[in-house]
User: What shape does this take?
Amino acid sequence: MSKMQKFFIQTFGCQMNVYDGQRIAAMLEKHGLTQTDEISDADLIILNTCSVREKATNKVYSALGRIRCAKKESALFGIVGCVARESGADAFKRIPELNFVLGPQSYHKLPEIITNPESRLLNIDLTGLEKFDELPQMNKSPLVAYIPVQEGCNHCCTYCIVPYTRGREISRPFNDIVADTINAAKTGAIEICFLGQNVNGYKYTDENGKLYRLSDLIKEAAKLPEIHRIRFTSSYPTEMSDDLIEIFGNEEKLLPFLNMPIQSGSPRTLKRMNRPDDLSIYRNIVSKLKSVRPDIQISSDFIVGFPDETEEDFTETLNIAKEIKYINSYSFKYSPRPHTAAAIMPNQISEQIKSVRLQKLDAQLNENQREFNMSCIGQEMVCLLEGIDKTKRHLVFRTQYMQQCIVEKPDYEIEPLQKIKITDANKASLRGEIIK
Ligand code: SAH
Ligand code: F3S
Assistant: This one.
C-alpha cells in the first residue's frame, strides 16, 4: 500500500461538528497529510456526520454511495460523528467497503487507520473528554471561533437522539476553555461562540472546590482586548440562571441575542416532549432578559407534527411564535429517530399535515423576521465581516442579531468589524453602507 498523503473531509450538521471537523483536519495535518477538495485525489475520505433528523442520516448514506464510485480504488473511507454512533456495526453491513466508523468521542482514534489500514476500525464508545486532550490546537482561527464548553445532554427530550449519540453531559475544565479562548484571540478571532448541546448547563468544579459556570467563561473572554463579540448556543430554558441573565446587562461584549429553543407552544405537546411545559417559564426569562438588556432578541427552534399534535396544539405554537416575536429561528418537521421514546408513541402525524403546518409556521417566522429587519432601517450597527458574495461586488456582514447585512465592496481596505448604517431590509437580509 502506497503512503497516505491526502485527505478529504466533509462535515454535515451542527457547529459542534464544524469544530470537530477542524480539529480532525489539524490532527491529520500533524500526521503529515494534506487536505484536498477532490475526492478522486484523496487517500483518506472522512464524512463527519449528523443524525438529528432522518433526512440528515439519509444524506450521509447517499454521499457514501457517491464516494464509493468516485474514490481512488486504494483510498480508505469512513464515517465519524453521530451517524457512526447511531449505526455502529450496521454501517459496515450497509456499505461493506467502509474502513472505519468512529463515534463523536472517538475521533482521536483516526490515526490508527493510517498506521493499520488493512483492518477495520469501529469505535462508538463514549469516552468523555479524551478527544479534547488529544486533538491538536488550530494555529489560525477564523474571525468567529467556536469553542465547545460541554458535550452531551442529560435532558432527554423524547424526540432527540443527541443524548444517545453525544452521551451524558460532561463539562470541560474551565482552564482548558480559557486557554482555547486565549489561543483563538491570539490567532485572529474577534468573536467567540461558546458551544454545547446544553451550553448554559456548563458546570465545572476545580480541584479546590471552586464552581465555574458559563457566566464565568463569558467574563474571562470579555477581558481579552482582541475579542469584541461573545455569544453561546444552545440554551435550555430552565438552566437560564440569574447570573447568566445578569451578565447580559453587565457585559457589553455579550451580544444582545439568545438562542433558547421552545420547540412548541402547546403545554400538552411540551409535556410529551419531556420539556418544561409551563409557558410562564419562557415568558419570565424573556421579560427578565429584557429588563437587563432592553434591545435583546430571542431565537428558537420549533418542531411541528410531534406525535398526537392537534390543530389546537399547533395553533398554540403559532401564537407563541407571534407573541415572543422570535427571530432567526429554525423550524423542523418531527422526524422519528432510533433510540428515542417519541418514535414509538401512538398517533404519528402524516407527512402531509407536517408539511402544511411547517409552511404556516414558516410564514409566521418570516413575518417576525421581516418586521424586525424593517425596524433596523436607519440604525447604525456594528457588524462582523463574513465574506464576499458571488459577484465579488458585495461584502456580507453579520449584525449583533446574526442578520445578514450586505454592503457594496469599497475600493479601500476595511477592518473586519465595521459600523454600518442600515439603509434597506427584507425578510432575508439587510442592506447598508459602511460608516467611515
Ligand atoms: N440543544 C441542542 C439541540 C440539538 S438538536 C443543540 O443545539 O445542540 C437541534 C434542533 O433540532 C432541536 O432544537 C430541535 O428543534 C430539532 N430536532 C431534534 N430532534 C428532532 C427530531 N427528531 N425531529 C425534528 N427535529 C428535531
Ligand atoms: Fe436534545 Fe433536548 Fe438535549 S433537544 S440535545 S435532549 S435539550
